[in-house]
Design brief:
Layout lengths: L3 E8 L9 E7 L2 E8 L5 E5 L5 E5 L11 E8 L6 E2 L9 E4 L5 E11 L2 E2 L6 E5 L9 E5 L7 E5 L9 E10 L13 E5 L4 E4 L7 E10 L11 E4 L2
Antiparallel strand pairs: 1-3, 2-3, 4-5, 5-8, 6-7, 6-9, 9-10, 9-11, 12-13, 13-16, 14-15, 14-17, 17-18
Length: 233
Amino acid sequence: MAGLLVIAAVSSGRALTAASFAASAVNGPNTIATLVVQPPPTTSASVGPGGGVHVAWDASPTAAAESVTYRVLRSPGGAGAYAQVSASPIEWLTYDDVPAGDGTYDYAVLAAVSSFTSAAGPVATVVVDVTAPTAVTLSAATGKTAVGSIDLTWTASSDAGSGIAGYVIHYAQAATCPAASASAYPSVVRVGPVTATEVDGLVRHQKYCLYAEAEDVAGHTSAPSNVASATAK
């Protein structure tokens, strides 16, 4: 990515090097110089277990001739609304950030030499997801089509981070429904990100108890839904 051309007035007493300055011209006691600061050529970002983001980048090529510092920028994913998250310019090549919550974030790094600043370097995108999806509300009714079936519907779960991957339906044949737990409901049906399904292969005219959980793409599971019951067709 090309560097940002910045114009600044500096004291004529400063030593200018051909490696640092693209051009110069004398204007009275001041020297008007243009310094092209190159951005970092690469940027990477990864999410830790607690939702912190580790940002790393390669040194600006300008660092071969000048003392370069860096500024780390963050934007909500795809929004292009970047704000500096590093409290002050930093000299090293990594930064650890803690976003306010789950979501998709873009990171970019720019380089600076004094008041001369580069364009932002390449963008690295991460998805932060440390929160489980919301629980759903389940409804059950005797199946309308297949023999030995129960029809289920539920409210959609939401997840601000990685998104909903699907739902897990737990069920058991019981005269009285126990509290929701994997041990009390050993049979399981997994479905994608839908809000209705049919559980079949059940014993006709028998009562079944069921509950549902949502799963997000990151692997988190919601709290159990309410327990619903219905008689298989």
